[in-house]
Amino acid sequence: MAPQVVTFQAQTGPHPSYIHVAEQYVFQQQIQNSLVAIGTNPTREDTFRLQGVQWINDVRTALQLPVRTFCTAVHYFHKFRLVHKDNEYQYPDAAAAALLTACKIEDTLKKSREILCAAHNLKVSASEHLSSDDAAFEGPSKVVIGLERLMLEASGFDFRVRYPHKHLIKLAREAGLDKDVTRVGYNIMIDLYRTFAPLKQSCSTMSFACLELATKVLEKQQEKLNGKNAPRYKKWGTRRAEVLETILDLLDLYTHFQKSSIVGPGHSMDKFIQLKIKVNQEAGEGHRYTETHEAPKTNGFNKNIKTPKTPVTPASPADVRTNGKDGASPATLSPRSSGSGRRGIGARGQDGTVRFMLDAEQAKEEKEITSKYFKEEYEEYEVEVDEPIKPEKKEDRRPQQPYQRNGPNGRDDRPPFHQNKRIRR
């Protein structure tokens, strides 16, 4: 009889579900980690991002939609691309789904067929224009409607979108800037949406950055924003470091993708390079990003990731296959099955329900209350068990000596005979 320790696991209740808290602002480290997690190639990411934003801007201009619809559409387009891989969808389909979602949110209603028809008519001559009722848009329309649900899920069903152009006009009036400077700043604001800055910064920060860059590009009225009588950052709820970070995001766009912007082609590359050197000197070495982010604990598991300064380019993109099967593409998922169906990279809670919340404090309190009901508890018991005797191998057997009835001491050297009896209690 040998004592052994047996461990029993207490059964837990149903799955606690997953809570997705919508984030109105994100950090630069979060953006980089999301791109690394889905295995995005940086070159492809820049290309698809710029082409998607340009597609949205061209179509909304053709449909005569206001600039607030453009801001909302690009905001959802960026959020969607931080969750799903580029090879899971076509960027025109994602851009059309973002514009359709923005039209509903901003109450500038347009059907998916009308958006696709406007995009088609921009590429062909006037003699080949089609109407929105044409049968050619039936298939693409279903794809766009299917992506609309994923667009809302990627943003956490958060409809809080910022409109910085209003703040830009108010700031220009307060600073007393000329109309030509304000016009250039307005176009720079549209170019700013080709970057991830609208996900990180507030309206006042983006307004200061666009107007200051406009004064530096035109080389006039710079004292209006940096002099003694200039508007104060504290009054507008921003800081100098955040403004410099936004200006550097714009200068990265103008130095690397000058032809893919509105203001870039109208000025020389050397001017933007010189401005970038001066702004880098003011910001300081290693102080490009003003804030750092530490990932919180989610459902009891610590998902902290060491945030790199720059996104790492993976040797090979992450595989979309799950359990030997290809993950379904978001473009082919219907709105009904997209919430619970198996998806590719970025799927949340495949074994449980995903719940979307806006209040982070309420989500934290709810997790603290329910976490004690889903802890894995173990109990140890010490029990005695019968261990079977291993059979003796033939090669280990030794020749048995004959027993002597009268040993050297005059005793019988045969082993005593014992009979074991097991008593059941």
From TrEMBL:
Region ranges (Disordered): 284-425
Pfam families: Cyclin_N (PF00134)
Transmembrane segments: none
Family matches, as Gene3D superfamilies: Cyclin-like (1.10.472.10)
Basic and acidic residues: bias regions: 284-296, 361-376, 387-399
InterPro entries named among the record's database cross-references: Cyclin-like_dom (IPR013763), Cyclin-like_sf (IPR036915), Cyclin/Ssn8 (IPR043198), Cyclin_N (IPR006671)
One record GO biological process: regulation of transcription by RNA polymerase II
Family of the protein in this entry: Belongs to the cyclin family. Cyclin C subfamily.
Name of the featured protein: RNA polymerase II holoenzyme cyclin-like subunit
